[in-house]
Every structure is written in structure tokens, then in C-alpha cells.
């Protein structure tokens, strides 16, 4: 059984949002074109409290996109984004919500960031997604969403480490940094993660 994991396609990561991913809106038609191919669709949602430690605004003297540490871990300090209950935190309504069986909220702990859909960045706390997928009989996890060099990438790596076969849908993701995306793809290839384009796949039912 295969599942589609739609990572963080939220308004703050789309054009006009607080932390827009370049061309992030282009993942939506690619995702919608393949939704009916999956018996299980899961979406993730960054869901940060306003005092989240990854926000530059919570560190006097820090500017967005500077790097530093958060409780001993390397951290990019981001603009405030995907604050709980805000418009920017909502999943794009251009993705048919009725096709999503579960929405997993992450990044709720203000003391640690949470890029992956499976763990926080300290890898101390699983989100429960692994157990949910395995209980449903999922063997393959197909990754789409934002951003290709951050949350989608880390989700793909963790899914592979947890024993799933992973397909990373390059045309259904967009990165923040092209250079970072190249390194992410090289790392995924080394790990045996399949990188494919949804529009060019021959589907096996």
C-alpha cells in the first residue's frame, strides 16, 4: 500500500505569505493531479506558538535567515510563520480537503523546531505518523510539498530510516535554496530514495 504525504502546503509558504517558497504554488497542480492514485493521503501542517524559538523575532538582535543555535541544535532563525490559528497556517484550499484522511500538526513545542513529519529536530519525540502508517499497512511513502530542501527532504530521510520505501516527487516540491536542494537530492540518492516526477510516472496499481 502506498501513501501520499503532502508536506506543509500552507499559505505562509505560498506567494504572499510570511515565508514564501519560490514558485511554491506550482506544487499544487502537481499534487492534485495524482491524489486519486493514493488510497491514503496525509498532510502536515506547521503549527507554531507565537513564542516559538525558531522565530528571529523571539531573539533580540537576530534577523530572519541568520543561523545560530536553539537549545544546542543548529537553527535557522525564520520570520514568524504558520502561527497557530492564523490564516498563514491554513493548508491551501486549492488542495481538496476531502481527499486528506489525516492532518498532522508539528512544530508545537517552542523549544525545538520540527522539520520532519516523523520527529522533532532533536529526534526526541516521534509525531506518531510512523505508527499510523504502519498500522494502515503502508509500505511506500510518496513525498510532495514544501520546502524541498527542508521539511519535505527531512520527512523523506526519516521515512527511509524508518523502513519505508520512499519516492520523492521532485515536480511536486519546490526548495527555498537551489543549492540546498541539490545537496538534499544527492543525499537522498545515496540513501536509496527514489527521486521521480509525478507527471512522468507509469503507475502500477
From TrEMBL:
GO MF assignments: metal ion binding; nicotinamidase activity
Similarity-based family = Belongs to the isochorismatase family.
Its protein name is Nicotinamidase
Give the E.C. number(s).
Answer: 3.5.1.19
Part of which pathway?
Cofactor biosynthesis; nicotinate biosynthesis; nicotinate from nicotinamide: step 1/1
Which segments constitute the Isochorismatase-like domain?
Answer: 3-195
Question: InterPro entries from the xrefs?
Answer: Isochorismatase-like_dom, Isochorismatase-like_sf, Isochorismatase_Nicotinamidase
What enzyme category does the UniProt record give? hydrolase
Source species of the chain: Thermanaerovibrio acidaminovorans (strain ATCC 49978 / DSM 6589 / Su883) (Selenomonas acidaminovorans)
Organism domain of life = Bacteria
One BP term from GO: pyridine nucleotide biosynthetic process
Show which residues constitute the signal peptide.
none
Amino acid at each position: 500500500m502506498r501513501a501520499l504525504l503532502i508536506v506543509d502546503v500552507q499559505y505562509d509558504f505560498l506567494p504572499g505569505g510570511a515565508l514564501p517558497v519560490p514558485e511554491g504554488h506550482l506544487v499544487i497542480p502537481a499534487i492534485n493531479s495524482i491524489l486519486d492514485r493514493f488510497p491514503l493521503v496525509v498532510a502536515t501542517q506547521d503549527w507554531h506558538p507565537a513564542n516559538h524559538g525558531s522565530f528571529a523575532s523571539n531573539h533580540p538582535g537576530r534577523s530572519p535567515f541568520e543561523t545560530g543555535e536553539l537549545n544546542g541544535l543548529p537553527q535557522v532563525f525564520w520570520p514568524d510563520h504558520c502561527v497557530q490559528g492564523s490564516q498563514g497556517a491554513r493548508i491551501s484550499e486549492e488542495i481538496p480537503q476531502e481527499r486528506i484522511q489525516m492532518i498532522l500538526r508539528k512544530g508545537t513545542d517552542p523549544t525545538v523546531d520540527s522539520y520532519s513529519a516523523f520527529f522533532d529536530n532533536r529526534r526526541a519525540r516521534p509525531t506518531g505518523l510512523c505508527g499510523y502508517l504502519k498500522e494502515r499497512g503502508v509500505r511506500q511513502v510518496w513525498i510532495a510539498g514544501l520546502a524541498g530542501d527542508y521539511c519535505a527532504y527531512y520527512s523523506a530521510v526519516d521515512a527511509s530510516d524508518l523502513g519505508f520505501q520512499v519516492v520523492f516527487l521532485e515536480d511536486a516540491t519546490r526548495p527555498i535554496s537551489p543549492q540546498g536542494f541539490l545537496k538534499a537530492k544527492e543525499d537522498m540518492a545515496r540513501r536509496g530514495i527514489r527521486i521521480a516526477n509525478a507527471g512522468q510516472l507509469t503507475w502500477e496499481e
